[in-house]
CinA-like protein (Panacibacter microcysteis), 842 residues
Amino acid sequence: MQKVTASIITIGDELLIGQVIDTNSAWMSQQLNNIGVWVQHRVAVGDVRNDIRHALDEEGRRSDIILITGGLGPTADDITKPLLCEYFGGRLIMHQPTLEHVTYLFEQVFKRPGAMLERNKKQAEVPDVCTVLKNERGTAPGMLFEKDGKVFISMPGVPHEMQGIMKDHVFELIRKRYSMPRIGHRTLLTAGQGESMLAEMIQSWEAALPTNIKLAYLPNYGMVRLRLTGMGEKEQVEHELNKQFDLLKQLVHAYLVTDEDIPMNEVVGRLLKALGKIVTTAESCTGGYIAHLLTSIPGSSAYFHGGVVSYDNRIKQHLLGVKAATISRYGAVSAETVTEMANGALALMQTDYVIAVSGIMGPDGGSEDKPVGTVWVAVGNKDRIETKKLWFRFDRKRNIELTAINALNLLRIFILTNGSA
Amino acid sequence: MQKVTASIITIGDELLIGQVIDTNSAWMSQQLNNIGVWVQHRVAVGDVRNDIRHALDEEGRRSDIILITGGLGPTADDITKPLLCEYFGGRLIMHQPTLEHVTYLFEQVFKRPGAMLERNKKQAEVPDVCTVLKNERGTAPGMLFEKDGKVFISMPGVPHEMQGIMKDHVFELIRKRYSMPRIGHRTLLTAGQGESMLAEMIQSWEAALPTNIKLAYLPNYGMVRLRLTGMGEKEQVEHELNKQFDLLKQLVHAYLVTDEDIPMNEVVGRLLKALGKIVTTAESCTGGYIAHLLTSIPGSSAYFHGGVVSYDNRIKQHLLGVKAATISRYGAVSAETVTEMANGALALMQTDYVIAVSGIMGPDGGSEDKPVGTVWVAVGNKDRIETKKLWFRFDRKRNIELTAINALNLLRIFILTNGSA
């Protein structure tokens, strides 16, 4: 059994000038890791011949599998395919099955046969030294090259096309070619305690971890995920991971949100689904983001039927029945206002639970009394509404995200401590 | 005048197993590019001594400025600081101003003086060979090292802390140290035409571009951004970019959405603001995401007062007045239903414009007649509602995003072609 290593090369000026965030690398890393491949290096280079060549040389020396994304589009700024052809000592030939597939896409899927141009046809050209990996979702095929015992796989940078090629071909190819060690992960999510304090709590356990098990602290949104990674023979590593994970869960029990690697919105969704309860939202400062998080989970219609975005005071009053006097006396960002928003939404939407938020997300709108980042959250049911003031010191985007995640966590705690409604 | 180059090294196993998406690199690249630094290489390595060392060696040879993020947290999985200390030939000493800052944060900002542990104090230790860059937003300071004429800057991986150190110190340091060529960008957004067709339309113009101006095609959300990048002496490059950008705008005029590098939600927001008009949203399948996009722009309260997430038919009927007969005859995903949703939302929210969407985002819920990805969008005002059927062939997340962006674009076109309400 060998340790199989991989490198990822992403090609494209748009990555280096920061116009595009690289989500492909994270997805590929995650998936490869799951099947036991250790991604040890990732590199991003621009559309520059020498830089691409150099990356191929270097990563080819470093890793067993080299995955390359980007640079395969139909337009003139793409130089990757000719370069790969030259690098692996081939010449470009028309690949008939790919040409038929491109034609099929234009005629049957895009329904625009007339839009197929010479440059689209050229996407069916491949180096004669590669194995073509069919791209069901687009016109640029994947290409597999071998050199000095190393495998190079080039794929387009469009995320769902790359993911399709990986699922349709690459994982299977890797599984067939290598006998791999097991890489296992266990991740839990904690809330309410910082990274340092958690580290203190689990210090002696951490020091006694076997050498093939690693612990990582992943702080995010004011919460901390703890991840155990183990590598080795499958049964042994799974057994050891389970044992250590159980110990860890006991140690952080008081702050444990979930022992699965799922986000807060999914934790709350599962809880509601298990109880057969419905939640609604009344959002001011988060502007629909909490509803979006809830509905981004498939099957969320089981516990979310709708919500109100009451961004302006007019809507808070008109739709949710918040009293004008409450807003003028306490302000739109107050315990009193979010309580009335919550009660109004419960009545309007006829649900079991409610989340209501009102705050100042920035960059403007703060005052000495209520600085930017001040948020009031209300969670509850028809019998009881609880409110909490939060304060985040970040930019608008992050303040919105933190408000949403923390509001969901407050609902979770409410449900767990107050029983079902 | 020299070409100043930079490399970015990100450190952390969480990046290589794909548990975290690297947004730092994009932000750093963008900002550096703006001040004229050319980021030519990005590399991600795990928490592995040899890999970090090797990356420092390699990027130190390659670039003038090496920016390093990650690996500076207070917990045991961080090995970066001792390694940097060793690499640059120093020893760790307690940095008194940083210790005072960490103490201040725990006492005055976190309001938890008792939570300050030995491991937090250790964050104030720095190699005696570095220049400390104060981190106003966290406990781990930035550190600047020099070696063989190259500048290495190490920062924590928490995005807002890294960004703070860059803004407070790094940009100014770079500007003082180097005299840089101008790197300028011009970006426009098109909709309604594919990458290949655009390429045909601008072919001869593109072929005649001066060598210091590069064109890139950046397809996203079914739209295509075109970006010109120029490098050289400031006045000359700005002049040439303006000239070429004007030509490009004329060529793609029929498909031009905006000639600024802003997203669709901001384009629509600016249009509404300029007209002094208000929009509301009635969202089924997008579950609040359109409202979120609108309100993620600062100042959006000028044109968005609120919206309804009517995820379930019950809410569509009860709150928006969609007739039960309409849903049972045509289905919830139909021109008829989104038209009634739109009219209901206009009446409920008393706004000038409305966007209503209903569709099947997947993975389940599709039928032969209405497969996953089918969406009906309605946009309009009290005088006129227009509907359009869309179909996306992607996963839930991407279907939601595409629906939202395209619905906003349909509203934009409605406003431009129907005049103000």
Summary: Residues 264-418 of chain B form a domain with the Maf protein fold (CATH 3.90.950.20). Chain B is about 40% helix and 25% strand. Chain B has three domains: 5-177, 182-258, 264-418. The mean pLDDT of chain B is 92.
